[in-house]
Design brief:
about 10% helix; 4-stranded antiparallel sheet; about 325 residues; Methylamine Dehydrogenase, Chain H; 3 helices; mainly beta
């Protein structure tokens, strides 16, 4: 009986370890997108218009806005898995502008209203099991009639895009990276040629991505970014780690310096979770910290409490099967 139980536990453990599939590579994703375009082009019903007739219309998680600073009644709104919508009448009506792209999963938006350029970072940046990956950076210069993929396909989740208001070809992007696995395409990336080429300017490690980034109002050179050390599995989630920290740039995201050091006053260590940032001015930065540091365990002399999770840490196989 004990042998059968041991074999069952071993089988369950092996199954548990192999339950996490490997991430789909960027090469396979790009190949699949090309196949999808070919299928759409050859479809017998490609010229037939479709209309949603019900039974209901549901909303979803709003992840970002891009608002015209000179006309706040005109803006774009992005949904976690519902694409991007545009309004020029303060939300009285909306028009979808991303329906003809290969994904509807959105993480961040940024618009250069002078040139009519909209950037979309695909892939929702939350860490839920329902947070779906994207396909990199998308860009449109004609209001969504056509889109171009500008790279970072393997980043999966893009949290922030900052455009230099004095030079729209200079763009800084924060990438969270894979949700369920480690990867190297995460961190901060910068382009000075409108997305034709990218330079990685900040990389923490292969499981810590950049979850937030903000520039000082009126000063593109001064930026702050926060990294998030996390590990999502289908059966578990670790939402904190020593890789979570705050970084500062004084040259428009070209170089970065870690500012949340042990002597800075900001929490450090394994208990540091997600960090939200808001830069008010050159001297004032607000940070919201998801503190997951554990308190020291309290000793108890009550023998009637029975087994706890701590009891299993030092338990032998014989004690477990007894």
């Amino acid at each position: 009986m004990k042998s059968t139980l041991t074999s069952f536990i071993l089988l369950l453990f092996v199954t548990f370890l192999s339950a996490q599939p490997a991430a789909t590579s960027a090469t396979i994703v790009e190949s699949s997108l090309q196949q999808k375009e070919q299928l759409q082009e050859n479809s017998l019903v490609k010229n037939l218009p479709f209309k949603n007739i019900g039974p209901s219309i549901m909303s979803g998680r709003v992840v970002d806005f891009a608002v015209n600073p000179n006309n706040p009644t005109e803006f774009y709104v992005g949904y976690a898995s519902g694409g991007v919508w545009y309004t020029d009448n303060n939300g009285t009506t909306f028009t979808p502008v991303m329906d003809n792209t290969a994904t509807q999963n959105v993480g961040s938006l940024a618009a250069d209203w002078n040139s009519g350029t909209l950037w979309v970072g695909t892939g929702e940046v939350n860490a839920s099991r329902s947070s779906y990956a994207g396909i990199g950076l998308l860009k449109t210069t004609d209001g969504g009639k056509s889109w171009q993929n500008m790279g970072l396909t393997d980043s999966h989740h893009i949290s922030k895009i900052i455009i230099n208001p004095a030079n729209p070809n200079e763009v800084v992007v924060a990438a969270v990276g894979h949700l369920y696995s480690t990867n190297d395409e995460r961190g901060v990336y910068k382009t000075t040629d409108g997305g034709a080429t990218w330079t990685k300017t900040l990389f923490v490690d292969d499981q810590s991505g950049i979850i937030e980034m903000d520039a000082a109002p009126g000063n593109f050179d001064l930026m702050y970014a926060s990294s998030w050390d996390k590990d999502r599995k289908a059966w578990n989630f670790r939402g904190s780690g020593s890789g979570s920290a705050i970084y500062k740039s004084t040259d428009g995201g070209s170089t970065w310096q870690k500012v949340s050091t042990p002597n800075s006053g900001f929490p450090t260590g394994d208990g540091v979770g997600r960090i939200g940032l808001a830069v008010y001015d050159a001297n004032t930065v607000y940070a919201i910290h998801d503190n997951q540091a554990r308190r020291d365990a309290e000793e108890s002399n009550d023998a009637s409490e029975g087994l706890s999770k701590e009891s299993f840490k030092n338990m032998t196989a014989a004690q477990f099967l007894a």
